[in-house]
């Protein structure tokens, strides 16, 4: 499994995906003004810890053809932490394979950050995804223990994992067996909380019955919200599990930064995604993005913020996880957590998305091939 984060939904890439919110609760109508220099106010509860309402994904700091310079990354991370109220921790998401060669470059970057800013270690809640490689997910006890050693070496002594999650469900091992191993690793002090990623609702229930699951990580955005996401969200809400919603900006498309794969650096894994390379899909989805932009302009915020706020509105246990390597983007993303969309705005977004988003999440592979919804 060379392209580990590249999950794809099954089905034709040219059939519209109708995105509806279902029966999810919506917050009351509160209007907040965005200010990139002000401290954000909203927070979320993750395993009894107060964390930022909006997480910070670090993957594309290192898993790109040209890794972002340390100092730029450090400033982006630091700015996000500094913007939070006292007692609220930044939710940082890293991985043991977030590198072009599937190495530990992302964790090593974090190690250097905490060496420079050791006082910031206690101001962060660190989630690390692992147990995945070129051959696919591997949740054998031998490999999970090897992951613990690898992660500890890469992170160094200053910051420890708060949460560990297998990046994909290893269907060669019953989830109950995987959970028993992870529970043992918790008892041994390797990390504090267990997460699970890209699982289906039944797997989440089975896993939670063995040991409490703190968080489940799945892709959710205005471009990716169908029956699978809805079922996992419903199960997580019932069980009291946080939902980490990664790629809330459709891998950057909704932000407006990228119009197509041509805007990406050579070698960027997103160049092969159907939503970045198919001209028919690009044209159709661009019209949807433009309509979302009109909603954002009327509110006085960015399209990216509308998207993140829409995801956050799915429930208080949903923590959007956009990525950023720039101070300005980090603060913009965080501020979206203070934007409470009105019922009218949510209705407008729903009507726009009802037109149907074209393309799948990645390359048109089946869920089984992409190790999705295990």
TrEMBL record:
The keyword Nucleotide-binding does not apply. InterPro entries: Aldo-Keto_reductase, NAD(P)_OxRdtase_dom_sf, NADP_OxRdtase_dom. Keywords: Oxidoreductase. Residues 1-23 are annotated as: Disordered. Residues 1-20 have a biased composition (Polar residues). GO terms for molecular function: oxidoreductase activity. The keyword Oxidoreductase applies. It comes from the Eukaryota. CDD domains: AKR_AKR8A1-2. Residues 53-353 form the NADP-dependent oxidoreductase domain. GO terms for cellular component: cytoplasm. This is NADP-dependent oxidoreductase domain-containing protein. It comes from Mycena citricolor.
């Amino acid at each position: 499994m060379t392209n580990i984060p590249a999950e794809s939904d099954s089905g034709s890439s040219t059939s519209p995906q109708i995105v509806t919110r279902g029966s999810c609760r919506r917050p009351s109508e509160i209007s907040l003004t965005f200010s990139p220099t002000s401290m954000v106010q909203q927070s979320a509860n993750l395993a009894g810890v107060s964390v930022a309402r909006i997480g910070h994904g670090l993957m594309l700091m290192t898993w790109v053809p040209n890794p972002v310079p340390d100092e730029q990354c450090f400033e982006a991370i630091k700015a996000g932490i500094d913007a939070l109220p006292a007692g609220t921790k930044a939710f940082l998401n890293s991985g043991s394979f977030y590198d072009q060669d599937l190495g530990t470059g992302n964790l090593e970057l974090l190690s250097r950050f905490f060496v420079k800013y050791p006082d910031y270690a206690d101001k962060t809640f660190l989630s690390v995804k692992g147990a995945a490689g070129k051959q696919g997910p591997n949740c054998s006890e031998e490999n999970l223990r090897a992951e613990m050693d690898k992660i500890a070496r890469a992170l160094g002594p200053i910051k420890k994992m708060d949460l560990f999650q297998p990046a994909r469900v290893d269907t060669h091992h019953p989830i109950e067996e995987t959970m028993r191993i992870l529970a043992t690793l918790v008892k041994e002090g390797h990390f504090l909380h267990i997460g699970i990623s890209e699982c289906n609702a039944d797997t989440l229930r089975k896993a939670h019955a063995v040991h409490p699951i703190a968080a489940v990580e799945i892709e959710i955005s205005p471009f990716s919200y169908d029956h699978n996401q809805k079922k996992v969200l419903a199960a997580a809400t019932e069980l009291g599990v946080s939902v980490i919603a990664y790629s809330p900006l459709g891998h950057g498309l909704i932000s407006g930064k990228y119009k197509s794969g041509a805007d990406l650096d050579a070698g960027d894994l997103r160049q092969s995604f159907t939503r970045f390379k198919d001209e028919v899909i690009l044209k159709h989805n661009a019209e949807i993005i433009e309509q979302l932009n009109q909603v954002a302009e009327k509110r006085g915020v960015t399209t990216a913020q509308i998207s993140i706020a829409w995801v956050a509105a799915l429930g208080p246990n949903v923590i959007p996880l956009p990525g950023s390597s720039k101070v300005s983007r980090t603060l913009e993303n965080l501020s979206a957590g203070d934007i409470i969309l009105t019922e009218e705005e949510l209705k407008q977004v729903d009507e726009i998305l009802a037109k149907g988003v074209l393309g799948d999440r990645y390359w048109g592979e089946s869920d089984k091939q992409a190790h999705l919804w295990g």
